Amino acid sequence: MNLEGLEEELREKAIRLESWFKTYSKALVAYSGGVDSSLVAYFAKLALGDNAAALTLVNPTYADYELEEAERVAKFIGIRHIIIKYDSIVNPKIAENPSDRCFFCRSDLVKELVKVKEKENFDVLVDGTILDDLKDYRPGLKALKEGGVKSPLLEIGFKKEDVRALAKFLGLPNYNKPSNSCLASRIPFGERITEEKLLKIAKAELIVYSLTGAKKVRVRYHEGDIARIEVARDERRFFFNEKVMDEVYQRLKDLGFKYVTLDLWGYKSWENLSIRNKDKL
Fold it and tell me: Which of 114, 61, 117 is nearest to 85 (CA)?
């Protein structure tokens, strides 16, 4: 791997990441198609060749358009891509949407990952957790740790800016893809998650993406079929057009939303619409 021209500290991290994988003979990457897990998949493939694989678990909280992107990037990397479908919301601890829902969801996810790991005799199961993830409320990280999932980017000290810079240097097509989260995060804690709601959210976000050109989109689902659209603060201007607003409104109404609103502040990374934090809404 030619790293000439890469900043020294980042070059050192890249070398350490490749070396990290070479301590194993077979690696399975928990792969969402985001830039973090894509970088992990890239280095797993680089270090282990055909003894590396990327596994995407498809469930109702994972949008179809995310899977399409994941497949495209996996093909670019050249890594074997395993896709398995399972129904996450049959678990009542997930469907009831408690504040620690992510822990139960990740626990179930790890069980599915471990099944493949053991069936195909992989040495190690890895994910794309980075230092930035430790700053947010993420109970799912505990489940990953308890399940034996290793996080090489975290161990080496990668921040999001490192991941994006290295991914760009290596030519990964999703190096600038905005961070995303599962569709369940659009529903306030305490409100039941259903496949119907998740499908409606996924379709609504795809509409907003296509009509506005915004890159960071969340359609928050509120009780009473209310859609609250969030986009990055520097992308709010994409709505400063009556024709765009009218079309977004009508298309989301056609999906079954009774009210369609735009959050004037824009995207909030700290917010999962917790019923415990209504003062922040």
Answer: 61
pTM of the model: 0.89
Asked if 137 contacts 272 with a C-beta cutoff of 8 angstroms, the reply is yes
DSSP structure string for 184-206: GGGS-TTSPP-HHHHHHHHHHHH
pLDDT in tens, 93-126: 999 999 889 889 889 989 999 999 999 999 999 9
Q: Would you mind telling me the total number of residues written for the chain in this entry? A: 281
Structural domains present in the chain: 8-170 (3.40.50.620), 183-280 (3.30.300)
Cα separation, 239 vs 248, in Å, equals 9
Sheet holding 52-58, edge to edge: 80-85, 52-58, 27-30, 124-126
Instruction: Collect the ranges in the chain with pLDDT lower than 70.
Output: 136-137, 270-281
Alpha helices in 22-151 (DSSP H): 35-48, 64-77, 92-95, 101-119, 140-146
Dihedral Cα 265, 268, 270, 271, nearest 10 deg: 90
Residues 6+ apart with CB under 8 A from 114: 125, 147, 148
